[in-house]
């Protein structure tokens, strides 16, 4: 199995800098009083850390590509958090879902709804490609049919994923390890937690959502 590439940022050490291997970074921090260092999966996050910025920095993209960091949480309701990078701007959205048929899936529902929001938003903004960064493994595998859609919420997710793809959106799935030092993913996580307490900055549901739920429920998951 291919290991994810990492960048090791040494903020305080013998020779501060960004290193491509732990061995190089370790030489700078081992035995160094008050050493500060952290590993990242993205170079831009490592650079932000070196500059003392603990925030999500959007990378440069072509005008037809959007990046979305999505996460879900559960407390009072299912919360969804989304951080979007598009045309040099960062946008943040969070909302909650309280659908009886989805409640037992909790944070999974939150992340699925966040992903669908990102797909819908990308199309409405004119993006042709969405890089979806997430930490829920099933998000890609339910879409590509590697996993069975045994629950209603996953059936609904696959339906809308197919619909958005048919409308011309290309979705590229990129899994991110939870709490791996990715500031954008951490922001999406914080937004989802806020939403799970019935806080929101946007109201959203996919088109024909209630009708699709009824149809899938009656037909046992088939449309």
Automatic annotation (TrEMBL):
Keyword Nuclease (UniProt): yes
Limits of the RNase H type-1 domain: 62-197
Catalytic activity: Endonucleolytic cleavage to 5'-phosphomonoester
Example of a GO biological process term: DNA replication, removal of RNA primer
Keywords from the named record: Endonuclease, Hydrolase, Magnesium, Metal-binding, Nuclease
Broadest EC class assigned to this enzyme: hydrolase
E.C. no: 3.1.26.4
Cofactor or coenzyme needed: Mg(2+)
InterPro entries for the chain: Ribosomal_bL9/RNase_H1_N (IPR009027), RNase_H (IPR050092), RNase_H1_N (IPR011320), RNase_H1_N_sf (IPR037056), RNaseH-like_sf (IPR012337), RNaseH_domain (IPR002156), RNaseH_sf (IPR036397)
Family annotation (PANTHER family): RIBONUCLEASE H1
Protein name: Ribonuclease H
Organism: Thermotoga maritima (strain ATCC 43589 / DSM 3109 / JCM 10099 / NBRC 100826 / MSB8)
Organism placement in taxonomy: Bacteria, Thermotogati, Thermotogota, Thermotogae, Thermotogales
């Amino acid at each position: 199995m291919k290991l994810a590439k990492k960048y090791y940022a040494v903020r305080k050490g013998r020779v501060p800098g960004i290193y491509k291997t732990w061995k190089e970074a370790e030489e700078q921090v081992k035995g160094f009083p008050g050493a500060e260092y952290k590993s990242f999966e993205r170079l831009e996050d490592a650079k932000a850390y070196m500059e003392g910025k603990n925030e999500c920095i959007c990378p440069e993209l072509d005008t037809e590509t959007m990046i979305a960091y999505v996460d879900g949480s559960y407390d009072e309701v299912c919360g969804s958090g989304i951080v979007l990078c598009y045309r040099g701007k960062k946008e943040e959205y969070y909302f909650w879902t309280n659908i009886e048929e989805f409640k037992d899936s909790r944070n999974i529902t939150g992340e699925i709804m966040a992903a669908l929001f990102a797909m819908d938003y990308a199309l409405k903004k004119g993006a042709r490609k969405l890089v979806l960064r997430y930490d829920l493994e099933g998000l890609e595998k339910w879409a590509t049919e590697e996993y069975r859609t045994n629950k209603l919420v996953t059936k609904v997710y696959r339906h809308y994923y197919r619909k958005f793809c048919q409308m011309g959106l290309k979705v590229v799935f990129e899994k991110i390890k939870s709490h791996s030092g990715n500031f954008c993913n951490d922001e999406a996580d914080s937004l989802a937690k806020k939403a799970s307490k019935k806080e929101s900055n946007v109201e959203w549901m996919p088109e024909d959502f209630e009708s699709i739920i009824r149809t899938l429920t009656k037909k046992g998951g088939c449309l």
